[in-house]
Each structure stands twice: as C-alpha cells, then as structure tokens.
Amino acid sequence: MSKLYVIGIGPGGQEFMTLQAMQALKESDVIIGYPVYTDLVKPIFPDKEYLSTPMKQEVERCRMAVEAACAGKTVAMISSGDAGVYGMAGPVLEEAEGKDVEVEVVAGVTAALSGGAVLGAPLTHDFAVISLSDLLTPWEKIEKRLDAAAAADFCIALYNPSSHKRADYLQKASDIMLRYKDPETICGTVRNIGREGQSCEIMTLQELRDTKVDMFTTVFIGNSQTKKLDGRMVTPRGYKHE
Length: 242
Known about the structure:
single chain; alpha/beta; five-stranded mixed beta sheet; 8 helices; 25% strand; Cobalt-precorrin-4 Transmethylase, domain 1; 30% helix
C-alpha cells in the first residue's frame, strides 16, 4: 500500500522539527505543500521532488498528494506548525478515504506552543486557540467563540489575527475581550516564530487593541491571573498554593 505522510514542520527551521518529522521527510520521494512551506524544507532536502499549489487551492493540493501516492510514490504533505491544527491532516484524510493509500499524521509544534515559549509561559493553564480568518468560518461564528472564551476566562492564542482585508479584526476581537477582561490583562505577540526577524512584545489588552499585527503574528491574551515576570508572560496554574 502507498504511503502518504501528513507532516507538521513546526515554525519551519530544522531545529523545530521532530525526529519523526525529519525521518518521514527523509523517506519521502515527493514533498507537497504551500510554496512558503516547501521553501523552508528545500534547503534541508534539496534532492526531493517538490509540488505546490497557491493559497485557496488546498483541496487540489490534497488531490495531488493522494494521486502521487496512488502512483506508487512515498509522499509528504507538509503544513507549518501541526498538520492537525488548521492544517492539512483533515482534508488529506477526506481525500484519501476509500483509496489504496496509508495515511500517517506526524505531529508538529503549533504556533501556540512555539510562540508561547518565546514569551515565557502564557498557556500554563486552560487555554483556547481561535483563528480570526473568516475565509472558511463566518465572522459571526468567530465572534461567538471569542465571546465564550473570554467569558470563561481562558488564556487565548489568536491565529491569523490580521491581513490587508481584515486590518481591524484584532481590534474587534480585543473589544470582545474587553467585555469580560480587565484592560490591564497581560497580552503578548510573537512575529516570525523561529524564523529570521523573530520579535515579541508584551503589553496590556488595552494596548493590544491598537497594535498592528500581520499574518505572521500569533497573539496571546492572558487570563485574570496572567502576569509579567522579569519581562516574561506567565500564567500561574497554582502549584505554589498547593
């Protein structure tokens, strides 16, 4: 049976990939992904065959991967972060249903974890991950999820917080947070996680509301216990009070 790996490559640098991911890529004949992600892998595996499709052609990309596997090649479909978190694992499994292809999902380090490590320890307690992209999810539904997470005092990691067409979405999300959270709630942003030009900043929720971010930024909003300690964002879980 043909083999199709669906691999989360983390932020992109080799040091962020798991040993399992590296081994799966090494075994693959063909590596398929969004061009930004294949470009991150090419320097590590320059002799592989590479295929890609642009944004909004994810279904075609999955079909391409399954067809290559059915043709007898060992294929790697790659996603940044973890392939099962806003990644390609689900679409690949749907496309491969009923076909003579063995799909193996290989976990990766998602931005909530790699970005959280840059800031310190913002997600030590219960947290929610919410994407502000409304390409596949109506904004009305995103608003409901933001409202519920804020009301429950979750720490929140926001993916895809802004783009040219959605320049004010982080501001809208912050306004929803401010219905329940103190304006002084500790928040953080990390841009270009694990890549050249990585930067981070810690600020209050009120300051976050007017902060400019882009698609390469992950936003962290603390809960009522989150604090700033020696320049790091930390959410206590309560170990010191046991």
